[in-house]
Design brief:
- InterPro entries: Asp/Glu/hydantoin_racemase, Asp/Glu_race, Asp/Glu_racemase_AS_1, Glu_race.
- There is one protein chain.
- The protein is globular and about 50 Å long.
- Strand 7 (about 180), helix 9 and strand 8 form a beta-alpha-beta unit.
- The strands form two sheets. A six-stranded parallel β-sheet has the order 4-3-1-2-9-10, with helices on both faces. A four-stranded parallel β-sheet has the order 6-5-7-8, with helices on both faces.
- The two termini are about 30 Å apart.
- The chain has about 260 residues and is of the alpha/beta class.
- Helix content is about 45%, strand content about 15%.
- It has eleven helices and ten strands.
- It has two domains: about 5-95 and about 205-255, Rossmann fold; about 100-205, 3-Layer(aba) Sandwich (Rossmann fold), CATH 3.40.50.
- The protein binds D-glutamic acid.
- The site of D-glutamic acid has 18 residues, from helix 3.
Length: about 260
């Protein structure tokens, strides 16, 4: 089975490019279309209804582009809207959820930390998953302000360092040995986070797992492309400068209202 249509990927902004990049590394021949809904970021402080409506708007755009599969490269949109998307559209969706399972299963201290948006930590889907790990203490922290600083291109600012220190120090004090990054924007903060965490604390995100899952669904249900190489397209509905720079000016970034 083959299928030359593109894979669609969306996020509230530029953060999902961390997931896109894992997909592009594993499946370089596949054409990908990435939507950064930066105009509406952050999603993390919005209501479930707003997140569902924004997610549907993004999916409609990607379906107009004939996408064969959609990756919801946003924990907040996945945990609040993936059920509604799967109910309303006849196309496979791959979501991204905080990787608490590998962290809890491998933790020696039985204490893990999770940094995510308020929307993710308050969602029913996240709480149901967390309840499955009764023997592990999960220290939850909302990353207030982090997404906005990333969207504004202030990754290495003093404000960023101060926020991260205030969120991570209580976790270090509580003896975590795993930190789960439950927001697709946060992998861009790994260098700064590593400066704060002691070396033995491992950081986990979900990028590679989502890429492998995408490969499985293409193999089982949708079909791989016959193309030898494809250039990705990135659409953004606000100023494209930060997206272009996070992609190191290597790809086609188009500013468009959607
Ligand atoms: N990147 C998103 C996530 O994975 C959402 C960030 C936001 O818009 O608040 O949760």
């Amino acid at each position: 089975m083959t299928n030359d249509n593109p894979i669609g990927v969306f996020d509230s902004g530029i953060g999902g490019t961390s997931i896109w990049s894992a997909i592009h590394d594993l499946l370089p021949n596949e054409k990908t279309i990435y939507l950064a809904d930066s105009k509406n970021a952050p999603y993390g402080q919005k209501t479930k209804e707003q997140i569902v409506a924004l997610s549907k708007k993004n999916v409609d755009f990607l379906l107009e582009m004939k996408c064969k599969l959609i990756v919801v490269a946003c924990n907040t949109a996945t945990t609040n809207a993936i059920r509604e998307l799967r109910n309303d559209y006849d196309i496979p969706f791959i979501g991204i959820e905080p990787a608490i399972k590998p962290a809890a299963n491998n933790s020696k201290t039985q204490v893990i930390g999770i940094l995510a948006t308020k929307g993710t930590l308050n969602s029913e889907l996240f709480n149901k998953t967390a309840e499955m790990f009764q023997n592990t203490t999960i220290i939850e922290q909302v990353g207030y302000g982090l997404v906005q600083l990333i969207e504004d291109g202030n990754l290495y600012s003093t404000e960023m360092t101060q926020l991260l220190e205030s969120y991570l120090q209580p976790m270090i004090d509580a003896n975590i040995d795993y930190l789960v990054l439950g927001c697709s924007h946060y992998p861009y903060l790994i260098p700064q986070i590593k400066k704060i965490l002691p070396e033995h604390i491992q950081i986990i995100d979900s990028g590679e797992a989502v890429a492998r899952q995408t490969q499985n669904i293409l193999r089982e249900k949708v079909g791989f492309t016959t193309a030898q190489k494809s250039e990705p397209i990135f659409y953004v509905n606000s100023n494209p400068v930060v997206l272009d720079s996070i992609l190191e000016h290597k790809y086609n970034v188009v500013q468009k209202d959607f």
